[in-house]
Structure formats: C-alpha cells, structure tokens
Amino acid sequence: MNGRFVPESDARISIFDSALMFGDMVFEMTRSFRKKQFRLREHLERLYTGIKILRIPLKMTIAQMERACNETVRRNDPVFSSTDEHRLMINVSRGPLGIYAQVFDGVLEPTVVIADFPLKWTVAGMGRLFDTGINAVITSQRAIPAYLLDPKIKNRSRIHYQMANIEASMFKGDHNWPLLLDPDGFVAEGTGDNFFIVKDGVVISPEGRNILRGISREYIFTICRQLKIRCVEKNIEPYDVYTADEAFMTGTPFCLLPVTGLNGAAIGSRGMGSVTRRLISRWSRNVGVDIVKQIKAFNGELRNSAIDAPTPYAFK
C-alpha cells in the first residue's frame, strides 16, 4: 500500500478516493506459473498506458512497480503451499480528490495497491468447464464502444460488465457467461475475458477496436504462430458463432476455456475442439505446467469451500 507492506486486514483506501467516487482507477491482474509471474512486464506496460491516458500523476516508474510486484510475491511465498500460484492484483487510482485536501494536510497522492492472492481461490469451480464448456449468452447489455469509453484502458468503471453478468445469470441452465456485442451488433468480448471462434482451422478474434486487448488474447496470437495456425482479427456476427467449429474464451486466471454453446445452441460437437486443445496444450508446454490438470487439482482442494456468490465472471 503506497510503498508499505501491510497485512490484508490492515489495508485501507480513503472514502474520499477518486476510485470510490468515479471508478477512477486502472488495474491489472497477473498470475504465475511455477511461482514465476507470467508476462508481468506486458501487464505493467498496459497499466502505465492507462495511467498516462488518464493523467494519473504517478511518480513510481514502471521498473519500480515491477520490483514492488516481485517483492510482494517474495514476501507472500512462505505462506503459500508448494503447489499454489501467485495472483497479483495491481490497482492505481488518482487518490483523494482536491476538495478533500484539508483532510490530508494538503498532501494528495495516487493510491497504489499490489495484493497477492492464491490463484486457486480465483479459479475455484472452473476445472469442470474444460470438460463441459461455457454457454455464451448474448445479453442486451452492449459493450461500451471506444468512442464513449475506451475499453483498451483496463479500468474499474465496469458496471456494464456486472449488468451483463446479472442478465446472463437469468438464462436457464448452468455455466452461462455473458457475451457482449458492440453497438454495431458485432461480437466484442465477455465480462473480463476475450472471445475467439475457430472456423475451417482458422482462429478468429474480434477486431481490437471495442474490446480490452487482453494479454492472454495476445498470447494466443503467439501460440498460433508457433503452431503455424492461421489467426485473424475480423468482425464476427452471432451467426458466425452459431456456425463455428469451435469457440473459446481467454483470461489471465484460467488461460483458456472452451465455449460449447451460444444461447443454449451447440457450437461444434459440444466439446473442446481439436484446435482449442492444441492451443491449451502448447500453452502448457511453454510454461511447464499442465494448465487443465492444475486448475482441476485446485478445484479438488477447494471442493468443500466454494461459496455461492457472484464472481468476476458470473452473477449468482
């Protein structure tokens, strides 16, 4: 917290912070593989782009931020089990607003929080989705286009995501995750994840115009180059999803999950497709961790501790 290491129970943000008043905060979530942070620098580069665009007067350099992240991991590792992975949440806000300056003796600075958290608590319950897949639900809540609020800046103003989560939770059945369209009716993204389809062996992503350009999304492009799989960015309509051979979503905690249905209608053979399987296998090979096996093992550890409450990906 702003340069000090404190227990989570002692971490506090002012009620006058701009994050609370306006959702005026940029953030990143990262994860480790075998205790080593994955693409931390890329996450921080995106964070600092948001800081620049939002004019947050942060004096901390990206190198200092990277060292602070690694030190946070180092200090927490003794209480993590040998199989745990580190999930960092990095939040940066403008800090207290100017009208409250007297409360802080005129010293107004950005708020910086780096919190470590066991990854297994984040992915609790997701292991079965590698087998069942996700049913994507197109919601009436649309993605906010870049000309209104640029989604490429990863920010905390995310009430539209939560509205989509609430709507998708009303769809009949299990494993329903929202899929947002942009104002032109093209598929954009999920609520914290990126979306892909596979058609005739080609991996297709929505254009990066009205979406968060995820770090995991970018890594799919890298893996496709490694496997010599053609990967393109183009506008996708719901019809293209219905007629796709495969579909999947990407996100930092779970990496990649198959999408086997759209609004209850089957996509492909209703299982993890061959191209999707090649992608997750290569990802696992690259990082030296069987990602599917690891998350399923986490789920086994937490079988009796799951809480029936909203998550970043689903509203219950």
Can you put this structure into words, describing what you see?
By secondary structure, the chain is of the alpha+beta class. The protein has 2 domains: 8-121, D-amino Acid Aminotransferase, Chain A, domain 1, CATH 3.30.470.10; 129-301, Alpha-Beta Barrel (D-amino Acid Aminotransferase, Chain A, domain 2). Helix content is 30%, strand content 22%. The protein has 10 helices and 13 strands. It has helices spanning 18-22, 40-53, 62-76, 119-122, 129-132, 159-169, 215-227, 238-242, 274-287, 291-301, and strands at 25-33, 36-37, 86-93, 111-118, 134-138, 176-181, 187-189, 194-199, 202-205, 231-233, 246-251, 255-262, 265-266. The strands form 2 sheets. Strands 5, 6, 7, 8, 9, 10, 11, 12 and 13 form a 9-stranded mixed β-sheet that branches. A 4-stranded antiparallel β-sheet has the order 2-1-3-4. A hairpin with a 5-residue loop joins strand 6 and strand 7 (187-189). The chain is globular. It starts with 17 loop residues before the first helix and ends in a 15-residue tail after the last helix. The mean pLDDT is 95.
Question: How would you concisely characterize the structure shown here?
Answer:
With 316 residues, the chain is α+β, with helices and mostly antiparallel strands. The chain folds into two domains: 8-121, D-amino Acid Aminotransferase, Chain A, domain 1, CATH 3.30.470.10; 129-301, Alpha-Beta Barrel (D-amino Acid Aminotransferase, Chain A, domain 2), CATH 3.20.10. α7 packs across α9.
